[in-house]
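R.M. (postdoc): so does anyone remember the format we settled on? I'll just put the structure tokens first.
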């Protein structure tokens, strides 16, 4: 992984990045909303490894923003 979210736990970051890798890997970002307040986009890529497919990199894509203003 090449970056983390600010103000979240590492467990949350790993869960988000792994979920996005499994559901929507590649250039087109995985997009979702957390607590109906924060729009998040994540780009993730996999690679072949001894275990099968492994996470190569994952990072927030573009601007994650607060929907409540």
């Amino acid at each position: 992984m090449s970056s983390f979210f600010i103000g979240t736990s590492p467990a949350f970051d790993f869960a988000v990045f792994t979920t996005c890798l499994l559901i929507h890997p590649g250039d087109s970002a995985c997009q979702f909303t957390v607590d109906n307040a924060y729009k998040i986009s994540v780009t993730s890529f996999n690679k072949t490894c001894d275990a099968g497919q492994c996470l190569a990199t994952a990072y927030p894509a573009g601007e994650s923003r607060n929907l409540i203003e």
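R.M.: ...and that's the designed sequence above, right after the tokens. Also worth knowing: The helical segments are 10-23. Residues 7 and 13 are 10 Å apart (CA to CA).
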